[in-house]
Amino acid sequence: MDYTAPTALLKDKIILVTGAGDGIGRVAALTYASYGATVVLLGRTTTKLESVYDEIIASGAPEPGIAPMDLATATPDEIQKLAEVMEEQYGRLDGLLHNAAILGDRVPVEHYDINTWMKVMQVNLHAVFLLTRIFMPLLRQSSSASLLFSSSGVGATPRAYWGAYSVSKYALEGLAKLLMEELENASHIRVNILNPGGTRTSMRATAYPNEDPATLKAPEDLMPLYLYLMGDDSEHIKGETLQG
Ligand code: NDP
């Protein structure tokens, strides 16, 4: 995307990024912070979150929050507690980047490992519902909030052998579209879907082990789009699906 963000695009914004320790989420968190946001880093590996935290502090950006949480096992109570802490600390939420996801297996449905199926659906879909549901009151406190759902080409159109990942992203798009309709009249909350497209991360390397990573775009290349959708320059963009 051809977009140059103003340096203070996200000044004073409170943004929660899931899967902020690695891959696209890590770069998005660093980028949002560098444009002035206070970012809350949610992820399952605390050491990775700490290193993103350290990078943000070293850059002089606003101090981020750290929310270690395994979305495969997080209970509604745990998520509610996080929302309460954030309400106390910040009073609102201006952006939520649903980014964390797992790939699962790529085998026919009839051979798909049942526990893996459940886990993929939990992380990629149910946790997204829980976070959205529980953080909605905080999003409503924002004067201009952006809710972003990370999908995939195999979410828009299910692809054979991509199993729960494909189904979870298909359903995620359904959830996002439902919300788009329900929030149509909530003029200050916008919901969009973004599909980063093939990007050089460990998930992509696992999905396509024979691919040369050098042929792929880096997470950094996606940041104009991620910034645009998170900042108020996209205030009028609602209910869209954008491709990276
Ligand atoms: P990565 O696997 O590189 O990063 C995923 C992040 O999510 C990691 O930080 C990971 O934590 C975190 N995460 C995974 N499981 C959990 C969990 N149970 N609880 C909390 N955090 C968790 O993925 P990408 O950066 O490639 O993908 C980001 C998003 O973009 C995903 O939604 C993906 O589906 C989508 N996407 C990516 C494409 C690509 O080509 N890369 C293409 C299309 C869509 P940890 O590091 O600790 O494992």
Question: What is the element layout, followed by pairings?
Answer:
Blueprint: E1 14-18, H1 23-34, E2 38-43, H2 46-59, E3 65-68, H3 76-89, E4 95-98, H4 114-140, E5 145-150, H5 153-156, H6 163-182, E6 189-195, H7 202-207, H8 223-230, E7 241-243
Parallel strand pairs: 1-2, 1-4, 2-3, 4-5, 5-6, 6-7
The structure holds NADPH dihydro-nicotinamide-adenine-dinucleotide phosphate.
Record keyword descriptors for this entry:
244 residues, alpha/beta, Rossmann fold, 7-stranded parallel β-sheet, 7 strands, 14% strand, globular, binds NADPH dihydro-nicotinamide-adenine-dinucleotide phosphate
How would you explain this protein's 3D organization?
- With 244 residues, the chain is an alpha/beta fold.
- The protein has a single domain, classed as Rossmann fold (3-Layer(aba) Sandwich).
- The chain contains eight helices and seven strands, in the order βαβαβαβαβααβααβ.
- The chain has a seven-stranded parallel beta sheet with strand order 3-2-1-4-5-6-7, sandwiched between helices.
- β1 (14-18), α1 (23-34) and β2 form a beta-alpha-beta unit.
- α1 (23-34) packs across α8.
- The structure holds NADPH dihydro-nicotinamide-adenine-dinucleotide phosphate.
- NADPH dihydro-nicotinamide-adenine-dinucleotide phosphate (NDP) binds next to α1 and α7.
